[in-house]
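Usage

Read records sequentially. Each one opens with the input sequence:
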Amino acid sequence: MEIYKKMNSTLMSNYEINIKLSLLPQFLQNKISNYASSEKKQQRIEGIMLLTTALKKNQMEENSIQSMYYNAYGKPYIIDDVDFSIAYSNTTTVLGFIRKGCIGVDVEHIKPIDCSVYKEYFTTKEWAFLTQNLFSPVTFFQLWTRKEAVVKAIGKGAFLDFNCIEVLEDSITLEDKQLYLTTEFMEGYCLSVASSEEG
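and closes with the structure output:
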């Protein structure tokens, strides 16, 4: 399992975005061009660049991205013995990459938040944990990014109910998959990883 990060990147000009887009396969150019904001376009480009780096490091064909496909829930894949997950928040992009397993990552900028709006997304135990921690944004984003990472690792994204997934422990079994969870805090961000590989 490998984690790649691009943090605090400077916003590219539209010219730079278009140059980098032109280097990608046509279907990715089309997909990324559909985003209205330059920030979102840049995030997606940086995600693909991190994926290309991971493929190179693992001595795999960079042009594997040419054959990228998506499952019924929208999770991208390139080849059967590799799994990856990309997450974005503001100027930070993160890629999780694994051989022979599954992985999901999520990153969020830690900011003040009204936790009560999200109560329905947490289990009873998780809500009690949030209450004990006085609804700290750090605690909220720790739980939230873990949930996001789990559903990405399973490959179903928003199609799984968050309130049925409890992420207080560092391992979880969901849909016959054993996942290991880790969380780290870095420069105002919370990053969580859910992976079939412990570590």
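Summary fields computed downstream for this record:
- Strands lie at 2-6, 69-70, 76-77, 82-89, 92-99, 103-109, 171-174, 177-186, 189-195.
- The chain has a mean pLDDT of 92.
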